[in-house]
Every structure is written in C-alpha cells, then in structure tokens.
Design a protein that fits this description.
Keywords: 2Fe-2S, Iron, Iron-sulfur, Metal-binding, Redox-active center
Number of strands: 4
CATH architecture: 3-Layer(aba) Sandwich
Number of helices: 5
Protein name: Glutaredoxin
Mean pLDDT: 94
Strand content: 15-25%
Pfam families: Glutaredoxin
Number of domains: 1
CATH superfamily: Glutaredoxin
CATH topology: Glutaredoxin
Structural class: alpha+beta
CATH class: Alpha Beta
Largest sheet: 4 strands, mixed
Strand order of the largest sheet: 2-1-3-4
GO molecular function, one term: 2 iron, 2 sulfur cluster binding
Radius of gyration: 13 Å
Family: Belongs to the glutaredoxin family. Monothiol subfamily.
Distance between the termini: 32 Å
Helix content: 40-55%
C-alpha cells in the first residue's frame, strides 16, 4: 500500500462521515463540493472534510482509492457512497438519510 493510499485509508476508516472536496465546508471551491456540503448540512450530520486542493497526492490518490474519477467523494463509516450527483439522487429519494440512520451517524450537535 502506498503512502498516500495508507493516509487516505486512515482518514476513511477513522471518520464516520468524510467528504473529500475542493475547498472547505465553510468555503467550497466548486459547485459540486458546495452542493455536497449543503446536503450534509441539511441532514444535520457531523462530518469532516479533506481539501484535495491542499494536497496533490490526496487529490490524485482519492480517485484511485475509490476508482471514481471525480471530486467530491463521500465516505460513510469507511464505505464509498459516491459523488455530488449520487448524493443528490440518494438525498431526493430519502436513501442518504436512511443510510446515515442505519449506520448510526452522529448528528452535528452530538459531535464533541
């Protein structure tokens, strides 16, 4: 396992919900990342973000890690969920909320 793959794996496995995105939750740097943050904020879940613009190795490595070509990428309890479009489709169908509930993801206000 390469160093960047190991770093990504550590992040994905140790965070309940993590969004690899361009920018930060407070200042997304692309519309897709902004939409992904808005969905998670609307659902009120606690989540962490990784700004791929700050680390070129992570930016390329995450695409290889998930075998998914675009960013943002959402992971829940170690499992790749998808990008912005998939998040939107799942949200509109009620599937994203169901997934987060089933995986017992903490609400934002529950996060210490």
């Amino acid at each position: 396992m390469s160093d960047v793959t190991s770093r990504i794996d550590d992040i994905v496995r140790n965070k309940d919900v993590v969004l690899f995105m361009k920018g930060s939750a407070l200042f997304p740097q692309c519309g897709f990342s902004s939409r992904a943050v808005a969905i998670l904020d609307h659902l009120g879940v606690a989540f962490d973000t990784v700004d791929v613009l700050q680390d070129a190795e992570i930016r390329q490595g995450i695409k290889e890690y998930s075998d998914w070509p675009t960013i943002p990428q959402l992971y829940v309890k170690g499992e790749f969920v998808g990008g912005s479009d998939i998040m939107m489709e799942m949200f509109e169908a009620g599937e994203l909320q169901q997934l987060l509930t089933e995986r017992q993801v903490a609400k934002a206000e529950d996060r210490a």
